[in-house]
Amino acid sequence: MTRTKIAFIGAGNMASSLIGGLLDDGYAHENIVVADPDEERRSQVAANFGVKVTADNHRALERADIVVLAVKPQVLETVCRSLASAIASPPPLFVSIAAGARTDAILRWLEHDVPLIRSMPNTPAAVRAGATALYATASVTQQDRNDAESLLRAVGVTVWVDDESLLDAVTALSGSGPAYFFLLMEAMQSAGESLGLAPDVARLLTLQTAFGAAKIALESGADPAVLRQRVTSPGGTTEKALEVLRGSDFVTIINKAVAAARERGAELADRLGGKNG
Ligand SMILES: NC(=O)c1ccc[n+]([C@@H]2O[C@H](COP(=O)([O-])OP(=O)(O)OC[C@H]3O[C@@H](n4cnc5c(N)ncnc54)[C@H](OP(=O)(O)O)[C@@H]3O)[C@@H](O)[C@H]2O)c1
Fold first, then answer.
1. pTM of the model
2. Which of 47, 52, 180, 211 could tie 33 with a disulfide, CB 3.0–4.6 Å?
3. Has residue 276 been placed in a domain?
């Protein structure tokens, strides 16, 4: 990271994950300031990470090189509008992690043409296994991109999209994605139990299998389709199970589910951003 001082607006779950990741990466705790109205949250964050905390968002902005907007989407407009008068010249880099808040709305609320990067992380960021997509607005420099990438890479992998509307697809795929895998795990665990396995045995076998499958896919770099073929012997047990899944339109159902999530994400973003605000 080329610039030093980072201000987090909002001291919630995602801010804590990011701060933890940055500190693990060797980032100096004295260069992080966190603003949150909740005293208990502030004390927790100060105690856990040794960072500076404040109840005053304007104070957090003072001397910040990077401002991370880490509040819930529904309060983002109020937060941005209140920050507008404290934005210095030249402005810091703003990085929003708020789901569904589009950059045109954020820039309108901030009342300044600041360099702004919108990101969409996911919950596995809490265990440094997140997947984040980033989108940069026009005034963002290469250095801004590098800094935002370092920030989000502290909690997992990052990818860039060059069309903001693709963040709705990202939200549907990796944002909501952990829940799809949890559902599959629930179903597999329950299937194991109904075949006579003890719940704890079915659970462990399911979770480790999910973890192992993802690890092989990531480490081998091979397409999931190729990996699936490799573990499917003709006439064997896996082939039999896959026949049942295909016969039930498994792939179509997943496609429909992800498309529905994308549509809902776009609707929520329209509602959040308003048009005239
Ligand atoms: N958690 C995830 O995995 C995840 C994934 C993708 C995107 N995100 C995005 O990350 C953002 C934060 O999510 P989160 O799960 O970390 O939420 P969270 O735990 O609720 O954290 C938000 C924090 O912001 C504080 N806050 C509220 N109003 C504020 C204000 N005016 N100024 C400063 N801080 C204020 C909240 O305090 P109070 O509790 O007192 O209101 C809370 O501590 C959201 O926009 C979400 O869409 C999260």
1. 0.94
2. 52
3. no
Residue 69 Rama label (left phi>0; alpha psi -120 to 50; beta): beta
- List the structure tokens of 176: 């909501």
Give the pLDDT confidence score for residue 277 in this predicted structure: 41
DSSP codes joined into one string, 27-45: --GGGEEEE-S-HHHHHHH
49 in a structural domain: yes
**Ligand 1 pocket, residues with Cβ under 6 angstroms:** 9-15, 35-38, 41, 57, 70-73, 75, 79, 97-99, 121-123, 125, 175
Task: Catalogue the E-assigned strands of 121-263.
Answer: 130-136, 156-160
pLDDT per residue as tens digits for the range 217-229: 999 999 999 999 9
Q: How confident is the model at residue 106 (pLDDT cuts 50, 70, 90)?
A: very high
